[in-house]
Specification:
Strands 3, 4, 5, 6, 9, 10 and 11 form a 7-stranded mixed beta sheet that branches. The protein has a two-stranded antiparallel sheet with strand order 1-2. Helix 8 links the parallel strand 7 and strand 8. The radius of gyration is 23 Å and the shape is globular. It has 10 helices and 11 strands. By secondary structure, it is an alpha/beta fold. 30% of the residues are buried. It folds into 3 domains: 98 residues, Orthogonal Bundle (Arc Repressor Mutant, subunit A), CATH 1.10.10.10; 101 residues, 3-Layer(aba) Sandwich (D-Maltodextrin-Binding Protein, domain 2), CATH 3.40.190.10; 90 residues, D-Maltodextrin-Binding Protein, domain 2.
Length: 295
């Protein structure tokens, strides 16, 4: 059933649909709220709210049920959503075919090494194929260093690890549980659990030590390495255990679960964009957000 076939549908009095309003509606539905939609569209929340009022007035029906604690689509909103997506996809495809090939420039992207080796290769490969005149400079580093270098103007975009509270700022683009990881052999013996960690401060390191302290378990730092490859080599050699996102655990390692170790909370990856940016940077930011949402 299309929106015009809805039993309570009211035909438009004239004029045409504003694609900008439809894009805001789709973004609200996909982001799950007005605040995150405003972040993605680089607008204020009040502007997004006003656009929704205009769209509902233009269509003559309510599209969203909104309370202080929740937001959901109305039946008319459920009908409109796939139609709006199709219309926007066709519009964007036409523009992309005629304009994207002419966008040029260099984008400096900073990212944690583990995320760069697991989720980003395919995302960046698809972007490079559709934007052949844009050069990507990707740098892997610890989150603390990435944030400092971003503030110094070394990056256009950075992906950073952050606590769920969002203290590091940015737009959340990924979330998954953290797990304890060991080599294929038995866990190292001893009164203190040996840990393989990145240099402090590190979100994963902090999460590991704080969870062990809360559980009353003794631990020691057995190996510190700023390189993911070096840390994994140490774990594989049996020097200790490490913390990784669940979907980033490589072949040849095992997830340690059960009562022997405390549970770890989820981790987040956030995307931070420079205050001023080029069209090329905006295209990559939008591509990263949409690609990781579908992953």
């Amino acid at each position: 059933m299309s929106l015009s076939e809805s039993s309570n549908a009211k035909p438009l009095s004239g004029g045409q649909l504003d694609l900008d309003l439809l894009r805001s509606f789709v973004t609200i539905a996909e982001a799950g709220g007005f605040t995150r939609a405003a972040e993605r569209l680089l607008r204020t929340q009040s502007t997004i709210s006003l656009q929704m009022k205009r769209l509902e007035a233009q269509l003559g029906r309510r599209l969203l049920d909104r309370t202080p604690r929740s937001l959901r689509l109305t039946p008319d909103g459920e009908i409109l959503l796939p139609e709006a997506r199709q219309l926007l996809a066709l519009h964007d495809a036409i523009l992309a075919r005629n304009a994207e090939g002419s966008i040029e420039g260099t984008i400096r992207l900073g990212t944690p090494e583990d995320f760069a080796t697991s989720h980003l290769p395919g995302v960046l490969a698809r972007f490079a194929q559709s934007h052949p005149k844009i050069a990507l400079e990707v740098t892997c580093d610890l989150t603390l260093n990435l944030v400092e270098r971003f503030r110094a103007g070394e990056f256009d975009l950075v992906l950073v690890k952050r606590e769920i509270s969002g203290e590091a700022g940015g737009l959340r683009v990924w979330r998954e549980p953290l797990v304890w990881v060991s080599g294929e052999g038995p866990l190292p013996e001893g009164s203190h659990l040996p840990l393989v960690v990145s240099p402090a401060p590190c979100v994963y390191r902090k999460r590991a030590t704080e969870s062990l302290d809360r559980a009353g378990k003794l631990w020691r730092v057995a190996y510190t390495c700023g390189s993911l490859a070096g840390a994994l080599a140490a774990v594989k050699a049996g020097l200790g255990i490490a913390v990784l996102p669940k979907n980033m655990v490589p072949h040849g390692f095992r997830i340690v679960d059960g009562a022997s170790l405390p549970d770890l909370r989820d981790t987040e990856i956030a995307l931070i964009t420079a205050p001023t940016y080029s069209l090329a940077v905006k295209r990559l930011a939008d591509h990263i957000v949409s690609s990781l949402e579908r992953a």
